[in-house]
Amino acid sequence: MESVLFGQEGSVATVTLNRPEVYNALNFELGSQLTTALERCQADASVRVVVITGAGRGFCGGGDLKAASAYSPEDPSRFFRELTKHFHRLVTDIRLLPKPVLAAVNGPAGGAGVSLALACDLRIASEAARFKQAYTSNALVPDGGWTAFAPLIVGLGRASEMVFLDPVIDAQRALEIGLVNQVVPAENFAAAVKEVATRLAAGPTLAFARAKALLNASLLPALEAQLERERQAISASARTRDFTEGLAAFLAKRPPDYAGK
Predict the structure, then answer these.
(1) Total domain count for the chain?
(2) What are the φ/ψ torsions at residue 181 (nearest 5 degrees)?
(3) Residue 207: inside a domain
């Protein structure tokens, strides 16, 4: 796999998003390979903990809007319909994996990158991390379970602030509002992630699996329905004139001029 790196040290598997030139933005290949990596973790009994992180300076910048433009210029919604097939499967697999999944947020996370981190069981952030909801600023709606996880993790008020005002949230603020569980200096980040992952791997993994299943039992029925609502809504949003303008503005690196159409 080129878009995903897989490594294992002891009983800790590390899955690294490997498109650093575009801040590990999600495209079809990356989404598919992430799913393959998680299937490997599921099947391998020697893996007791999974760490998901990003190569280079970023964790995941979200969906690859340049790829969306190139995939189907006449109908960009096709890109999102296809991408969510991979991405929503990935989110469900993270939740169903009977092993702790730790998001090691090494740098900026936007859009689908935030959704990916929220789907994980725990989140450790480097001080270099930044979080941005991003979807609505590009005339889209959140997907990847964002609208299910964010209100549960940070509360409806904070989630609404992220949707409507779309602030850039630095690592310390993310810790304050509960978006992440721990923040560490960049120079200590790898060691801190290893420490937590090793602690989890040495823990009562059967109890962890059953406890995660109980948490999922209260969440998954709603999550599966919400993922389908998100898939339909982001596809519809990608057919609007506002998204056409937002995409053009993104590619031209200028402010968008939205008309609400």
Answers:
(1) 1
(2) -95, -25
(3) no
Distance, in Å, from the CA atom of 241 to the CA atom of 261, rounded to the nearest integer, reads 6
Tokens for 20? 């650093």
26 within a domain of the structure (yes/no): yes
The rounded distance, in Å, linking the Cα atoms of 255 and 245 is 10
Judged against a pLDDT cut of 80, whether residue 73 lies above it is answered with no
pLDDT of residue 196: 98
CATH of the domain at 135: 3.90.226.10
Range of the domain at 157: 4-187
For residue 231, the model assigns a pLDDT of 93
Q: Which amino acid is at 132?
A: K
Question: Do the Cβ atoms of 103 and 124 come closer than 8 Å?
Answer: yes
CA pair distance 65, 258, nearest whole angstrom = 17
Output the pLDDT for position 243: 93
pLDDT at residue 56 above 90? yes
Question: How far, in Å, CA of 116 to CA of 55, rounded?
Answer: 15
The answer to whether residue 135 is domain-embedded is yes
C-alpha torsion 189→195→199→205, nearest 10: 50
Q: Is the pLDDT of residue 167 over 80?
A: yes
User: Is 40 part of a structural domain of the chain?
Assistant: yes
How much is the pTM? 0.95
Local structure of 121: helix, strand or coil: coil
Cα gap 75→247, rounded to integer Å: 12
